[in-house]
Amino acid sequence: DAKTTQPTSMDCAEGRAANLPCNHSTISGNEYVYWYRQIHSQGPQYIIHGLKNNETNEMASLIITEDRKSSTLILPHATLRDTAVYYCIVLMNSGGYQKVTFGIGTKLQVIP
Amino acid sequence: NAGVTQTPKFQVLKTGQSMTLQCAQDMNHNSMYWYRQDPGMGLRLIYYSASEGTTDKGEVPNGYNVSRLNKREFSLRLESAAPSQTSVYFCASSEWGYSNQPQHFGDGTRLSIL
Q1: In the structure, what pLDDT confidence band is assigned to residue B96 with cuts at 50, 70 and 90?
Q2: Which of these, A20, B16, B64, B93, is most buried using a 10 Å CB contact count?
Q3: Strand B109-113 relative to strand B10-13, pairing
Q4: What gap in Å lies between CA A81 and CA A71, rounded to an integer?
Q5: C-alpha A54, offset from chain centre
Q6: How far is it, in rounded angstroms, from Cα B88 to Cα A11?
């Protein structure tokens, strides 16, 4: 399984862009990079995913390096409600099911 | 658009009691999952169901049983609760076998075993 490495915590000023890095140097060619977040006492919330190309949706942008060994989740205008733990995971199929391994993630604190 | 609904949200049990956690999804997904999350740890897979009529063990299945009642519902049962099963339990669903389809999670059941 490809493992991911994220900083334990980060701060971001409200209204500024939050850039959350993730290393996944052992990712294989058919594995997707996914980002989830977990706001205190809620279930993990899907944010975005990608394979090779950069992706954007209404929540965030995902930048994947050309060698696919790292990625960055960008929240363009962070708000206080974006304070959460953000998980970068590599999603693979294992014996027919999606083997999702959540690590410790990055605790993002958005500061007023 | 409820997504994944879990009941109950909170529960306190005594050691040895039994209980069933309920999960239902309205996204017509084939696959459903049960995870537990303990403080300072990531989610660990307990059981999963690839499709209606099938269930399989995940990483930490001991002490649990599951039932895939129909395509919508997937329940988790603790036959004889133990304090080590105190945790937050999450149910999730997704399309089967496609790594480009995300899992969607419920808001969890917080279970305390005394």
Answers
A1: low
A2: B93
A3: parallel
A4: 23
A5: 13
A6: 27
